[in-house]
Amino acid sequence: MRRKIVAGNWKMNKNLQEGIALAKELNEMLAIDKPNCGVVICTPFIHLASVTPVVDNAIIGVGAENCADKVSGAYTGEVSAEMVASTGAQYVILGHSERRAYYHETVEILAEKVKLALANGLRPIFCIGEVLEEREAGKQNEVVEAQLASVFNLSAEDFGKIILAYEPVWAIGTGKTATPEQAQEIHAHIRSLIAGKYGKEVADNTSILYGGSCKPSNAKELFAKPDVDGGLIGGAALKAADFKGIIDAFK
After folding, report:
1. Which letter, b or e, does each residue of 26-48 get, where b requires 16 or more Cβ atoms within 10 Å of its Cβ?
2. Is the pLDDT of residue 173 over 80?
3. How far is residue 241's CA from residue 173's CA, in Å, rounded to a whole number?
4. Which one of the listed residues 98, 130, 134, 167 is annotated catalytic?
């Protein structure tokens, strides 16, 4: 059975003290009221070493929002997968639409990042999704297929460690949300692409999260769809009550 997961992406928000406070608050809430799904918080790099010790990793997994496509060396300002893993983090978001758009991350760069993350024992939360013009042109299926090239070079065993997140870029931070039907349609298509590449068993075991203006008010309806296995949450992950409201959609 594939895991149901709610993952928070804090993006460039919360200073260190605020981040630790949020992690502790969430940990306390979930210790009292155990979640019915996997919970992950992905924080800025500087938070990782401080956040991992304050959460119970049986309840909350911790991840980074990115890692470098190089092992080590003279790459000022970069953070390697090995460094991320050394903090106790278990996950890393890769291929987020903001990284693709603002930092020009290509299929080749992302393939390298995925390989290094896996080599260091991290589980990538790998993001794919189309922008508004592509959706309006009906090209969403071919866009996600092209983006999957970064992970479709993996062995079936390594691909089994990947969590996918479908993010309609036109619905991130815009308040627009894909309808549950739109989300289900493309999640089912993504699962069919995985089945075509790796077989039905691997496809059935791959968690595919939805990421695009998911809130406590719409999470239950989205997560009820057969191919939507949870969410990658942006803005609503920055308030413990909102994030828990989304986690509780699995109750």
Report:
1. bbebbeeeebebbbbbbbbbebb
2. no
3. 19
4. 167
Q: Is 78 known to be catalytic?
A: no
| Statement: residue 174 has pLDDT above 80 | no
211 close to 173: Cβ distance less than 8 angstroms: no
Range with the poorest average pLDDT among 7-11, 167-171, 227-231: 167-171
Q: What's the whole-number average pLDDT of the chain?
A: 96
Tokens linked to 212 = 């695009």
Question: Rounded to two decimals, what is the model's pTM?
Answer: 0.97
* Residue tagged active-site, from 65, 96, 98, 187: 96
Predicted local confidence at residue 171, as pLDDT: 84
What CA–CA distance (Å, rounded) separates 190 from 144?
A: 8
Q: What is the mean pLDDT of residues 185-212?
A: 97
The backbone torsions φ and ψ at residue 71, rounded to the nearest 5 degrees and listed phi first, read -70, -50
Whether 167 is catalytic: yes
Whether 117 and 81 have beta carbons less than 8 Å apart is answered as yes
Q: What is the pLDDT of residues 59-94, one digit of tens each?
A: 999 999 999 999 999 999 999 999 999 999 999 999
What is the three-state SS of 54-100? Answer: HCCCCCEEEEECCCCCCCCCCCCCCCCHHHHHHCCCCEEEECCHHHH
